[in-house]
Amino acid sequence: MPPEETLRWDKLLQAVRAEYPDLYRSWFKELVPGQFKGGELQVRTPQTTQVRYLRNHCTQPFIQAAMSLTGRLVSVHFVSPVEDTQLGALPEPLGGLSEMPLSPDYTFEQFVVGPSNRLAHAACRAVCAQPGTLYNPLFIHGPTGLGKTHLLQAICVELLQADPPLTVIYVSCETFINDFVRAIETGRLQQFRNAARQADLLVIDDVQFLANRESSQEELFHTFNVLYQSRRQLVLSADSPPSEIPTLEDRLVSRFSWGLVAQIDPPNRETRHAILQKKARLRGCEVPDDVLDFIAERVESNIRLLEGALTKLISETHIDGKPMTLETAREALDGFEPRPARLLQISDILHAICQHFGIRLSELLSRKRSRSVAYPRQVGMYLARKLTPLSLEEIGGHFGGRDHSTVLYAERVINLERQRNKATAETLSRLTRELLARP
Questions:
Q1: Most buried one in 35, 154, 261, 413, CB count within 10 A?
Q2: Rounded distance, CA 298 to CA 306, Å?
Q3: SS (H, E, C) the chain
Q4: Mean pLDDT, 10 residues at a time, over the chain (439 residues)?
Q5: How many domains does the chain have?
Q6: Alpha-carbon gap, residue 153 to 146, rounded angstroms
């Protein structure tokens, strides 16, 4: 029998799900496999966000699963009907904005609505129905890990699907600041302004990082005015309302409050249960209610921690072949320790790296590859992977708009260096202690 005939799509999906339960998604069943010929398999999906997720996270898992099934070298390529050569890694900004990739998991369909977030969810839906007119700007605030980023990205996904020609820009506040600084240093300030001010939808996450950034506040003030006056939509998020962001200029506080300011609170137990159920089904896994109740009771305040506990349980049950029972959940999550109430921010790590190695932030985020800059940058990426819940793409965006492969490489390099070099291990331990000790 020819090798090509031995690769069955259902078996391939089963293999990926068994070996990589944390990466598997229920919508994998909707993927359309092409002809498997000459050791190459093309897999089609209609959504750009899904293609990015697959390329950035799943290429190697699919290849390994296919090679295990066929016993020969295989390449797997994920494509969409409208192929974009830059889907896998966003281009380096030339004075513009380093747009952050959208997650295929962050849609309105995957968002669980409860008493704590009903207003914010309704406002986001309304913005999608009438962008630039109703609730402009929309400002969502609440503690870390409650779904602000999910809602912001859901708006972007919804509008892009409804009207693909729209110019939608989603960035973190730190990315906005870093690209602004780089644009000044490289003499490309006008290109940066054009990129930001020609957007039909500008979404900025975590604007509390504007604190003590006078020049960045000035730039965002003028960008805000241009977009608002041309009736284009702005959506912002922060961990506190505009009036409580330290050193935020009064004129920005006023403008951020022009539209609607909506708060998100920690979810109640019923909502946490529903969130866990939705997350489990997204991974193609049915979890008994008593197990979901156990996790919902154990983790109370943070949706990211809820998801982390669920992912740990699903991974361990799949890998060890154990049944999904309450006893298994207690055993699997026995060592699960929630993060401190205050999660580390990338800004904490950036500042700690600059202070420890004696370099400027602009150097750390620059294109420089000298050892004196590249090594601290790699240490920072390593610590971000270990101490924050951010994705590879998000970490790369915060470190000067680098792609996910750069972050993975940095993690591997520093992990090897840590094992071989006692001084590196001591440096990492010291920086970790200092970061975790921050109030």
A1: 154
A2: 9
A3: CCHHHHCCHHHHHHHHHHHCCCCCCHHHHHCEEEEEECCEEEEECCCHHHHHHHHHHHHHHHHHHHHHHHCCCCEEEEECCCCCCCCCCCCCCCCCCCCCCCCCCCCCCCCCCCCCCHHHHHHHHHHHHCCCCCCCCEEEECCCCCCHHHHHHHHHHHHHHHCCCCCEEEEEHHHHHHHHHHHHHHCCHHHHHHHHHCCCEEEEECHHHHCCCHHHHHHHHHHHHHHHHCCCEEEEEECCCHHHCCCCCHHHHHHHCCCEEEECCCCCHHHHHHHHHHHHHHCCCCCCHHHHHHHHHHCCCCHHHHHHHHHHHHHHHHHHCCCCCHHHHHHHCCCCCCCCCCCCCHHHHHHHHHHHHCCCHHHHCCCCCCHHHHHHHHHHHHHHHHHCCCCHHHHHHHCCCCCHHHHHHHHHHHHHHHHHCHHHHHHHHHHHHHHHCCC
A4: 60 85 83 82 82 82 86 84 46 60 86 91 94 91 88 92 85 88 87 91 91 89 94 92 87 92 89 89 84 84 80 77 83 63 75 92 87 92 85 84 85 85 86 78
A5: 4
A6: 14
Q: Does any domain span residue 270?
A: no
Query: Backbone dihedral region of 358: left (phi > 0), alpha (psi from -120 to 50 degrees) or beta?
Result: left
Cβ atoms 39, 73 nearer than 8 A: yes
**Cβ neighbourhood burial of 315 (10 Å; 0-12, 13-18, 19+):** middle
Q: How far apart are CA 174 and CA 346, in angstroms?
A: 9
pLDDT, tens digit, 9 for 90 and up, residues 275-303? 898 888 888 788 888 888 888 888 776 78
Provide the residue range defining the domain that includes 257.
Answer: 118-263
Q: 231, 263, 295: which is the final residue of a domain?
A: 263
256 in the same domain as 141:
yes
pTM of the model: 0.67
Q: What is the structure's pLDDT at 85?
A: 39
Note the pLDDT tens digit of each residue in 50-99: 887 888 788 888 988 888 888 888 888 888 765 543 443 444 444 567 77
Task: Write the CB contacts of 289 (distance below 8 Å, at least 6 apart in sequence).
Answer: 273
If asked whether residues 72 and 126 sit together in one domain, one would say no
